[in-house]
Amino acid sequence: MTAPSLQPLEVPSPAYICPFDQACSYLEAAAKQLKLDGGTISILSNPRKVITVSIPVKRDNGEIEVLAGHRVQHCDILGPYKGGTRYHPAVTLREVSALAMLMTWKCALLGIPYGGAKGGIAIDPKRYSVGELERITRRYTSELIKNIGPSVDIPAPDMGTSPREMAWMMDTYSVNMGHAVPGVVTGKPLSIGGSRGRDMATGRGVMICVREALADRGKSLQGTRVVIQGFGNVGSAIAILLAEAGAKVIAVSSGAGGVYAESGLDISALKAYAADNRRSVVGFPQGTPISNAQLLTLPCDVLIPAALENQITEDNVNQIQAQLVVEAANAPVTLSADQSLTKRGVTVLPDILANAGGVVVSYLEWVQGLSYVFWDEKRVNQEMEHLMVQAYRQVMTQSQQQQISPRLAAYSIGVGRVAIALQDRGLYP
Ligand code: NAD
Q: Is 72 in the pocket of ligand 1 (CB under 6 A)?
């Protein structure tokens, strides 16, 4: 397969692992498994629309800064584009393109009628005031106004964004349309049509996958030793839910480092500590300090990277001691590290399955919004649980039947569904 023609906007460092090339490699492996023809592969490997907008923002000190904002719409064969909006200094067009492609396979795997998209701005949100972040978000939304909408492309939170940013996006879009349009984003506050259960949804989906994988091995969550990298929206929800279910969360980290306690961390106390310390767990008094590098190689039963890409690489893969690695973040394990882990018999539950709880509840939020009927949290969690368990079982069955890794099985199911839909719809004109 020829690599698609996205031009890198940045000069990569020698150790740079291109996320888009990695995403294409996974697509290529699935396409081979599915025996897809070259034309179908070319369509699926190229994003349909790549949008970069200029965002001039007035800083609080009066200076003007111009930021670049991206939105990549990978594929809308199955329905409107859907995907998060990331604010992080490492955002690049290639990263956003890779994440948009993952969203396409993830939605198809979970059986929800969306295509894949992703957006992002290369900023460290901690360096901006709330007012500056609001101006950035509103200008980014207004630049994208013709490219988003409830039946076109529906953004959601991702790294560095939250319900607050979704409310600003919804308001900006609605003011420009002249009426309230809650369906333009998901992950909104409850007050404007958000869904109950959305805040914990990605973490809950990860918890369900861990629980099912342990059950397949005749084990339960009770006493299982878990390490989590990242303590943001996703990592903190995973820690809370796993601890509630009886697992021992022995280490967690945020960007500047982590904490470790052999007997299990007190997650409620840690959550309160992080809330008072700009979301950092560093310095938590009831644990021993540990670096992010050390955390990944701790002896444990389950390792859950829940921060960012390329955390388990050729450099540290041989030191990974967990027998089960669950990708809560998108693409935290590189292609070569994934192959090494699989060879060693370590099970890796891939991102497009493990972290799909968020997009499932985003879909449920959209469904509730369109029908003007809002469900209680129990119903939301039940519907989500059903779709997650169903997808988990499909992936593991295919993995066992075809003797392939769960990742290849997940990709084959997701890519296969999109390829069939593409064939059924046909090519215009
Ligand atoms: P977040 O910004 O809320 O949290 C990110 C966490 O990672 C923070 O604790 C941060 O301190 C930590 N972190 C940042 N840089 C780090 C580094 N170099 N080393 C270790 N930790 C670092 O983001 P989030 O929404 O929790 O997203 C985390 C991951 O989950 C991302 O890969 C995202 O794409 C993926 N994801 C999120 C959702 C969602 O619903 N938010 C859904 C699916 C997938």
A: no
